[in-house]
Design a protein that fits this description.
The chain is an alpha/beta fold and 218 residues long. It is built from 10 helices and 5 strands. The protein has 2 domains: 123 residues, 3-Layer(aba) Sandwich (Rossmann fold); 66 residues, Winged helix-like DNA-binding domain superfamily/Winged helix DNA-binding domain (Arc Repressor Mutant, subunit A, Orthogonal Bundle). InterPro entries: CheY-like_superfamily (IPR011006), NreC/VraR/RcsB-like_REC (IPR058245), Sig_transdc_resp-reg_C-effctor (IPR016032), Sig_transdc_resp-reg_receiver (IPR001789), Tscrpt_reg_LuxR_C (IPR000792), WalR-like (IPR039420).
Length: 218
């Protein structure tokens, strides 16, 4: 199956480079482009791609707001944010807006293509160990307190709360299974149920919820 991608970046040269790299890959296809945040939302609504590669610094509306609009309206489209990693607040904000992860613009092309495939398959972009380090950096930089506006973890069982805490700490399903004395497959089932109960798109969003609920602190 071909993964359909929309490129959202205000720099035409960046879009051209990304399009060239993707065009050389048989299982990925660029179906649309956008030079502003507003255009990204419009094009995504019209084309309903699998993945949107979203720059943060976009004209008219920024990448965070565009991400929020897209993820709130199109449940099957995932947003992968592009960043130069110079603004932790923006990156964390994009994850809270519903992004499935983020990329650093100078990352190797093969890694970028692999990340698009990973997100299209329904996984979060960031590896568990990297998730832990980066999210803690964002939270620590902001001196964040638990976000009580996120609401209680209604319907979450004691075991699922344990799993959510470990996900927030950056553990993989294998590591969660070892920690709790359960099979990795059972851990995966718990993670899937948490995604459903907490309306999380992927593992990255579960990490955010764990921080917001105060289960994990930097």
């Amino acid at each position: 199956m071909t993964v359909r991608v929309v490129l959202a970046d205000d720099q035409e040269l960046v879009r051209a480079g990304l399009k060239l790299a993707i065009s050389r890959t048989p299982d990925l296809e660029v179906v649309g482009e956008a030079g502003t945040g507003a255009e990204a939302v419009r094009v995504t609504r019209e084309l309903t791609p699998d993945v949107v590669l979203m720059d943060l610094r976009m004209p008219i509306i920024n990448g965070i707001e565009a991400t929020r609009l897209i993820t709130s309206q199109l449940t099957d489209t995932r947003v992968l944010v592009l960043t130069t990693f110079d603004d932790d607040e923006s990156v964390f904000g994009s994850l809270r807006a519903g992004a499935s992860g983020f990329l650093v613009k100078d990352m190797p092309v093969l890694d970028l293509l692999g990340a698009v495939r990973l997100v299209a398959a329904g996984d979060g972009l960031i590896a568990p160990s990297v998730t832990r380090r980066l999210i803690e950096e964002f939270a620590g930089a902001r001196r964040r307190k638990p976000d009580r506006r996120a609401g209680p973890l209604d319907g979450v069982t004691v075991r699922e709360r344990e799993v959510l805490t470990l996900v927030g700490s950056g553990l993989s399903n294998q590591e969660i299974g070892e920690r709790l004395g359960i099979a990795p497959g059972t851990a995966k089932v718990h993670v899937a149920r948490l995604m459903t109960k907490l309306a999380a798109r992927d593992r990255v969003q579960l990490v955010i919820r764990a921080y917001e609920a105060g289960l994990v602190s930097p």
